[in-house]
Design a protein that fits this description.
alpha/beta; Rossmann fold; single chain; Proteasome_assmbl_chaperone_2; proteasome; 8 helices; PSMG2_sf; Proteasome assembly chaperone family protein; globular
Length: 248
């Protein structure tokens, strides 16, 4: 059984939530980690589920510990962030999606779900493409910000796919952003694309992404261990998008 454990009350007005579950290229996690750090967002809730490892997260210069899946808030910007330091097991994906969706409905939040689309032969200087899908009435957010529709049929898998699926079932307004990304290594360039041309215009929040550009190599190295853990997990446990071509 999954549930959201609220740690403190927050006052928000039609907030947007940015989801950062680990997945292909760690694009969602890199983007969400930047938001949490840059805006010094407040830890307001955690998420428990049978398929989430019972581990304790500690940080530099701090003696406290935190659960692995957390929700942060920024009241000034009406912004929420779902930050995870572990992959969510496929066995927990349905309950996880149900619990998160119910909580988002209760707080009247619009989620932005993030997924990487593995691209094998992308050159370092090539700008990743970004696409958008939506449930409920959220397609207007994509149209207003000129975010393209997908160029081909595809599927979003893992817990992010379960979240989008549940949003569709409940008619929750939700955006799914898919960005081309490195299939094997953390991809700060793809995360930068998500922030600059997806998250920033949709949320109306100004994000300084210079750090992602200046520290791209360092960020890749810092996230490498997590990427290795994700590679050891099954494809169903990794949030990712992939094409569904009729002929391969």
């Amino acid at each position: 059984m999954a549930r959201v454990r609220e740690k403190t009350d927050v006052s928000l007005d039609d907030p947007m939530l940015v989801e950062g579950l680990p997945g292909v290229g760690l694009v969602g996690k890199i983007a969400t980690d930047l938001l949490v750090d840059q805006f010094d967002m407040e830890y307001v809730a955690s998420i428990d589920a049978d398929g989430i490892p019972r581990v304790a997260i500690y940080d530099e210069g701090n003696r406290g510990i935190e659960p692995p899946v957390r929700i942060y808030a920024d009241e000034e910007r009406d912004l929420l962030a779902l930050q995870s330091d572990v992959p969510v097991s496929r066995t927990a994906a349905v309950d996880f999606a149900d619990s998160v969706t119910n909580w988002l409905t209760d707080v009247d939040a619009t989620p932005l779900y993030l997924s990487g689309l593995p691209i094998e032969d992308q050159t370092p200087d090539e700008i990743p493409d970004i696409y958008g899908v939506a449930t409920g009435n959220a397609a207007t957010l994509l149209d207003e910000n000129d975010i393209p529709t997908p160029p081909e049929r595809g599927v979003v898998g893992g817990p992010t796919g379960a979240l989008l699926n549940r949003a569709g079932e409940t008619h929750l307004d939700a955006v799914g952003l898919v960005v081309e990304s490195d299939p094997q290594f953390p991809d700060p360039a793809a995360a930068n694309q998500l922030l600059t041309n997806g998250i920033e215009p949709i949320t109306g929040v100004d994000v300084n992404t210079d750090e992602l550009v200046d520290r791209a190599e360092e960020i890749r190295e810092q996230k490498e261990k997590l990427a290795q853990r994700m590679q050891q997990a099954s494809e169903e446990e990794s949030s990712q998008a992939q094409p569904m071509r009729m002929f391969q």
